[in-house]
Write a structure and sequence with these properties.
Largest interface: A-B, 67 and 79 residues
Largest sheet of chain B: 8 strands, mixed
CATH topology of the largest domain in chain B: Pyruvate-ferredoxin Oxidoreductase, domain 3
Number of helices of chain B: 20
Structural class of chain B: alpha/beta
Radius of gyration of chain B: 27 Å
Oligomer: heterodimer
Number of domains of chain A: 1
Distance between the termini of chain A: 63 Å
Number of helices of chain A: 12
Strand content of chain B: 15-25%
CATH topology of chain A: Rossmann fold
Strand content of chain A: 15-25%
CATH architecture of chain A: 3-Layer(aba) Sandwich
Distance between the termini of chain B: 38 Å
Order of helices and strands of chain A: HEHEHEHHEEEHEHEHEEEEHEHHH
CATH superfamily of the largest domain in chain B: Pyruvate-ferredoxin oxidoreductase, PFOR, domain III
CATH architecture of the largest domain in chain B: 3-Layer(aba) Sandwich
Shape of chain B: globular
Strand order of the largest sheet of chain A: 2-1-3-4-8-7-13-9
CATH class of chain A: Alpha Beta
Shape of chain A: globular
Helix content of chain B: 25-40%
Radius of gyration of chain A: 21 Å
Chain lengths: 351, 609
C-alpha cells in the first residue's frame, strides 16, 4: 500500500490566503519518491504558488504521464481532479480536457523521459496548438523507476552512475518550446524555490501555452560527479537571466533599480509580471535572440534559467477554434441538438 | 438481354477525371423515378490517374446489396478496357467513347456495343481543357438517359439543384446532357433491352453515406469535441461532422462554435484528446480505421481501466497492415473487442446502414457515459463511403442526453457520499464527478494503475481482483443496454440459421429470398452489438447449424460467439467474403448451398467448415 494520507491536523496559526485556505489545503498524499528528490521540491513550489495565488483548488486540473515526475500529482492539490495517463501522452489528455472546459487551470506534469523521449511528438504538438496550460517538465536526465537509463535530455559527455557516457545529442526542451510556438517559456531549478515559485505563478496566470523546464536532480541515479543534472552541477552552472515577481496591483517600485533594469508586463487577467534583469542584454520578448542566447550558453555548459521567453498578447487554441464562451462541457441538449424538424429538412434534401 | 428495373450498370473511369458527380447524377435520377438503386464506388488508393469504377444496381425489387456481374458497361478508361469488357454478362451492353477508332478485336460478339463520340462532342462544344474532360462524363449520362429511358426532366432538375447558387455551371451541364441524349436519339437504335420504368418503390427513403449519417448522429448525440487523424475511409466522417457543425452548431448571435475539431498529429493523440475531453465531461469522439485502432491500443486500456467514456468510429478497410486502404472489410472485430493489453473487453455497435449509423452514433455517446467506457461504432468502407438508400433519419425531440452516473454540486453539497469506484447500484457502474464541480468534495485522481474503491493507489491483489471483477459486472450490464439483435424467422420451421451483422445486411436479405425460393429456409439473426445479448446464444441453441456470414478471413464474429457464449464451434459454419469488394447475395447463396450439400452428406455433430 503506497497511498499515505497526511494527518488532517495542522498548526493553529498556519497562515491562510485570501480564500481562507492554508498551505495544507493545497497539499496531497505523502510522497513515495526518494528522500531528497528534486520532484518533491517542485511539488512544494506548486503548492506554494497555488496558495499564494489563492487559487481555488477545484478550479485546477492536474494531468501527468508516466514516470517519477508523473506520480507527483498525487502529492499535491488533493482537492483538484487529476488524470494520470499513459507514458508520454499527457499533452493529448490535457488538450482534450482543455477543449472540454477552458475555464479551469490545466497543470501538466511530466518528466524528461515522458516529454523528450517517448512523448516528444505530443510535447511538440500541444505547444504548436498553443493549449492554455502550465506544462512542467521535471527534468533529471534519467529514468528513475527503471533504474538509471539516460533520457533524451542527458547531455552529451555526461556519465551515468555506472560510468556509461551519453553520446547522443541532448534535447533542450526550453529551446524547442520557443521554436514550436509556446508563448511562455521558463527554466528553473528545483533547488531554487525563490525563482521557481514566481515562475509557476506567472505561468498559471499566462493565458497560453506555458512551459517550465525545471532541472530536478535525481538523488538516486543522477547526482554524481559526471552528471550535468545533479545538485552540484546545477548550482555551479545555473545562469539566471532574470528574476521574476508576480504582483496583482501596480505598486510603486520602491527598490532602487537602474533604468532599464526592471520591466513590467501586464497579463490578460491584470496580473503584472515584474522582471528584474540579471543579464542586461537578455530580452525575453525577442524570440530569435532568446534562441540564440540559449544555444550559445548551452554550448558553454551553462544552465540558463529564468523567464526565457514570453509573448505579451498570447492567444490560445480556443481562440483559433473560435469556440463559444460557455465551456463545451456545460452545453446542454438545447444548444447541441438540432432537433426533429431540422432532421426532416436534412432528409428532404436527400431524396 | 431484356430487363426492366433490374440490371447493373458499371462505369469504368479514370480517377480524378470528374466522373463521380456525373455517375451520381445518373443514380439519383433513377431514384427520383421511384426505382431503388444501390451505388458503390470502387476506387484506388490514388489521387489522379488510376482506374476507378462506379457500380449502379437498379433494383425495382429493392435489393441494395452488390449483385455482381455487369449488364451495361460504360467504358471510359482504355487502361482497363479488356478486363471491363470481359466482365459484361452475355447479351449485355457496352457504351463507349467512339472518338478514336478501336479494333474489332476489342469487342465481344455477344455484347451490343454502342459508340458515342463523347470526346469529339466535348472538344467542339467547350474551350477549356478541363471542361472538355469533365463534360465527357455528363455526355454519357445524357446518352444513357435515352438508351434506358431515364426521365430527362429528372436529370435537368437534379442539375439545377446540384448547382444552386452556381448558375454559370448549370447551362454547360445541361448542354452536355442534351448532346448525349440527342446523339442517341439521332444515331443509335434505342431503346435497348434494359429499361428504367417509373415506379413507387423508393417511398420516403433517403440516399446518404454512412459516414455523413454517423457524423450527424454525433451532432445529435451532443458531441462537442472531435479529434482525428486523416485515414481512409474515416476521413469523410470527420469532414461531414465539420460540415454538419457549420450548419447546426454555430451560435447564431456570436458566430462562435459549439464544437471543437482538432486534427491531431497521430491516432495516439486523437484518442488521448477524446479521453481527456470525456474525462472532463464533454462528449468526444474520434473516427479512424484499422491502423488507427492499432495505434490507440494503450490509451484504450487506460479508458477501460480508469473508466472514462470515449466513442470511436472504426470505418473498417481491408488489413492487415496497410492492406487495401480503399477496399471494404469487417476485419477489426477482434482488434476492437479486446483492444489493449491485459484483460479488456469493449462494447461494439454494428450499424447495418446509414439510418442505423445515425442512430447508433447518437446512442454511442449515451452508452459511453452510462457505462463509462469506450464504445466502438463498427462501420466499414462500403457503408461509410457509399450512398445507401435507407429509411429517413428519425429523432424524438423528447429525448435528452443520458450523461450516466454523474454526481452534481448540489448532491455533493448535500453530503451525498462519493467513492469513484464503488459499485453502489450493483450494476458494476460507479459514480463520477467532473473536474471543477465542488470546492472541497468529489475530487479524485484517475489513473491506469490499480486503485481501491476510493480511487486511491494500491498494489493489493485482492483490491485489484475486486475492481476487475466489477468491470465484468459492468460488461454484463452492457448486454442489456446495447441494441438487441434483430431476428427474422423463415416462412417455415427450420433447423438452420444464419447470423450476420453490419453492411452484410442487404446482401443477406436478398440471399435469404433466393434460398427460400430454392427450398432452403433459414432463420436469421442480425447481431447489432457486442457483448452479445443472451438471445444470441439461445438462437444458436435452437438450430442444428448456424451460418455465420461475415466479411473477413478468420471468422472473427464466429470467434467472439464461441469465446463469449461458450458455443460449440462445430455448430457454427463460417461464410466468409474478404476480397475487399462488398459481399454479394450470389456469393452467400453459392456458399450456403455448397455447404448444405456437404452437410447433408455428413452426420450432424462432425466438424464442418
Amino acid at each position: 500500500m503506497t497511498y499515505l494520507p497526511k494527518p488532517a491536523f495542522r498548526h493553529p496559526d498556519a497562515p491562510a490566503n485570501a480564500l481562507g485556505y492554508t498551505r495544507r489545503d493545497y497539499e496531497g498524499a505523502v510522497s513515495t519518491l526518494c528522500a531528497g528528490c528534486g520532484h518533491d521540491s517542485i511539488s512544494a513550489a506548486i503548492i506554494q504558488a497555488c496558495f499564494e495565488l489563492a487559487l481555488p483548488p477545484h478550479q485546477l486540473a492536474k494531468l501527468s504521464g508516466i514516470g517519477c515526475s508523473s506520480k507527483t500529482p498525487a502529492y499535491f492539490l488533493h482537492q483538484s481532479h487529476g488524470l494520470n495517463g499513459v507514458h508520454g501522452r499527457m499533452p493529448s489528455l490535457l488538450t482534450g480536457a482543455n477543449l472540454a472546459n477552458w475555464e479551469l487551470v490545466y497543470l501538466g506534469v511530466s518528466g524528461d523521459g515522458d516529454s523528450a523521449s517517448i512523448g516528444l511528438g505530443q510535447f511538440a504538438h500541444c505547444l504548436r496548438r498553443r493549449v492554455n496550460m502550465v506544462y512542467v517538465v521535471e527534468n533529471n536526465g534519467v529514468y528513475g523507476l527503471t533504474k538509471g537509463q539516460f533520457s533524451a535530455t542527458a547531455d552529451r559527455g555526461s556519465t551515468s552512475k555506472r560510468g556509461a557516457m551519453s553520446v547522443e545529442t541532448p534535447i533542450d526542451l526550453a529551446s524547442l518550446a520557443i521554436h514550436l510556438g509556446a508563448t511562455f517559456v521558463a527554466r528553473s531549478f528545483s533547488g531554487d524555490k525563490e525563482q521557481l515559485v514566481p515562475l509557476i505563478k506567472a505561468a498559471i496566470r499566462h493565458r497560453g501555452a506555458a512551459l517550465i523546464d525545471c532541472i530536478s536532480p535525481c538523488v538516486t541515479f543522477n547526482n554524481h560527479a559526471g552528471s550535468t543534472k545533479g545538485f552540484d552541477y546545477a548550482r555551479e552552472y545555473n545562469t539566471a537571466v532574470n528574476r521574476l515577481d508576480v504582483i496583482f496591483e501596480r505598486a510603486e517600485i520602491v527598490a532602487d533599480y537602474a533604468p532599464g533594469e526592471v520591466e513590467e508586463v501586464v497579463q490578460h487577467d491584470g496580473t503584472i509580471l515584474r522582471l528584474r534583469k540579471l543579464a542586461p542584454e537578455y530580452d525575453p520578448y525577442d524570440r530569435i535572440a532568446a534562441m540564440k542566447y540559449l544555444e550559445e550558453h548551452n554550448t558553454a555548459g551553462e544552465i540558463v534559467t529564468g523567464l526565457l521567453y514570453v509573448v505579451r498578447d498570447p492567444h490560445d487554441l480556443h481562440d483559433d477554434l473560435n469556440t463559444v464562451g460557455a465551456p463545451l462541457n456545460h452545453l446542454g441538449d438545447e444548444e447541441l441538438c438540432p432537433g426533429a424538424e431540422a432532421l426532416e429538412e436534412f432528409n428532404a434534401n436527400l431524396r | 438481354m431484356n430487363a426492366v428495373n433490374d440490371f447493373v450498370v458499371k462505369f469504368a473511369n479514370v480517377n480524378g477525371s470528374g466522373s463521380a458527380s456525373a455517375n451520381r447524377l445518373f443514380a439519383k435520377a433513377i431514384l427520383r423515378m421511384g426505382v431503388p438503386v444501390a451505388a458503390r464506388n470502387i476506387f484506388p488508393s490514388n489521387i489522379q490517374g488510376l482506374p476507378t469504377w462506379f457500380e449502379v444496381r437498379v433494383s425495382g425489387a429493392g435489393h441494395l446489396g452488390r449483385r455482381g456481374g455487369v449488364d451495361l458497361l460504360v467504358a471510359m478508361n482504355p487502361q482497363t478496357w479488356d478486363q471491363d469488357v470481359a466482365e459484361i454478362e452475355p447479351g449485355g451492353y457496352l457504351l463507349y467513347d467512339s472518338t478514336k477508332p478501336l479494333s474489332l478485336s476489342k469487342f465481344r460478339d455477344d455484347v451490343t456495343a454502342i459508340g458515342v463520340p463523347c470526346g469529339d462532342m466535348c472538344h467542339e462544344a467547350y474551350e477549356d481543357a478541363r471542361e472538355r474532360q469533365i463534360f465527357k462524363n455528363v455526355v454519357y449520362v445524357g446518352a444513357l438517359s435515352a438508351l434506358l429511358g431515364v426521365d430527362f426532366v429528372e436529370l435537368e432538375a437534379l442539375v439545377s439543384t446540384q448547382f444552386r447558387g452556381k448558375a454559370r455551371l448549370i447551362d454547360p451541364n445541361l448542354r452536355a446532357l442534351r448532346m448525349g441524349r440527342d446523339y442517341v436519339l439521332a444515331r443509335v437504335p434505342y431503346p435497348i433491352g434494359l429499361r428504367v420504368e417509373r415506379a413507387s418503390a423508393v417511398g420516403d427513403r433517403i440516399f446518404l453515406e454512412g459516414d455523413s449519417a454517423a457524423a450527424l448522429g454525433c451532432v445529435y448525440g451532443g458531441a462537442t469535441v472531435a479529434a482525428w487523424y486523416p485515414i481512409t475511409p474515416s476521413t469523410a466522417l470527420v469532414d461531414a461532422f465539420a460540415r454538419h457543425c457549420r450548419r447546426y452548431r454555430v451560435d447564431p448571435q456570436t458566430g462562435k462554435h459549439r464544437y471543437a475539431i482538432v486534427q491531431a498529429e497521430d491516432e495516439l493523440a486523437s484518442i488521448g484528446i477524446v479521453i481527456g475531453a470525456a474525462w472532463n465531461g464533454a462528449r468526444a469522439f474520434t473516427a479512424t480505421s484499422g491502423p488507427g485502432i492499432s495505434l490507440m491500443q494503450e490509451f484504450l486500456g487506460l479508458a477501460y481501466f480508469a473508466e472514462i467514456p470515449a466513442v470511436i468510429f472504426d470505418v473498417q478497410r481491408a488489413g492487415p497492415s496497410t492492406g487495401m486502404p480503399t477496399r471494404t472489410q469487417q476485419a477489426d472485430l477482434l482488434a476492437c473487442a479486446y483492444a489493449s493489453h491485459g484483460d479488456t473487453k469493449h462494447v461494439l455497435l454494428f450499424p447495418e446502414d446509414p439510418h442505423e449509423a445515425f442512430e447508433f452514433a447518437a446512442l454511442a455517446f449515451d452508452l459511453a457515459d452510462r457505462l463509462q467506457t469506450p464504445i466502438f461504432v463498427m462501420m466499414d468502407l462500403d457503408l461509410g463511403m457509399n450512398e445507401w438508400l435507407c429509411a429517413p433519419l428519425v429523432w424524438d425531440d423528447a429525448r435528452r442526453m443520458d450523461r450516466g452516473k454523474v454526481v452534481t454540486f448540489t448532491e455533493l453539497e448535500a453530503g451525498h457520499p462519493f467513492a469513484r469506484y464503488l459499485d453502489v447500484d450493483g450494476d458494476g457502474v460507479p459514480y463520477r464527478t467532473y473536474p471543477g464541480t465542488h470546492p472541497t468534495r468529489g475530487a479524485f485522481l484517475s489513473r491506469g494503475s490499480t486503485k481501491d474503491r476510493y480511487a486511491r493507489y494500491t498494489e493489493d491483489g485482492s483490491v485489484y481482483v475486486d475492481n476487475v471483477r466489477r468491470l465484468l459486472r459492468k460488461f454484463e450490464t452492457a448486454k442489456q443496454l446495447v441494441p438487441m439483435p434483430v431476428r427474422q424467422a423463415a416462412t417455415r420451421t427450420t433447423r438452420l440459421g444464419a447470423i450476420y451483422f453490419g453492411s452484410t445486411a442487404p446482401a443477406m436479405g436478398e440471399a435469404l429470398e433466393v434460398l427460400e425460393a430454392q427450398g432452403m429456409a433459414l432463420d436469421c439473426l442480425r447481431v447489432r452489438a457486442f457483448p452479445f445479448h443472451e438471445s444470441v446464444a439461445e438462437f444458436v441453441a435452437e438450430h442444428d447449424r448456424v451460418f455465420v456470414v461475415e466479411q473477413n478471413r478468420d471468422g472473427q464474429l464466429k470467434m467472439l460467439l464461441v469465446n463469449e457464449c461458450g458455443i460449440d464451434p462445430s455448430r457454427l459454419v463460417s461464410v466468409l467474403h474478404y476480397d475487399g469488394t462488398p459481399i454479394t447475395a450470389r456469393f452467400i447463396v453459392h456458399e450456403i448451398t455448397a455447404r448444405l450439400a456437404v452437410l447433408r452428406g455428413v452426420p450432424a455433430g462432425r466438424g464442418v467448415r
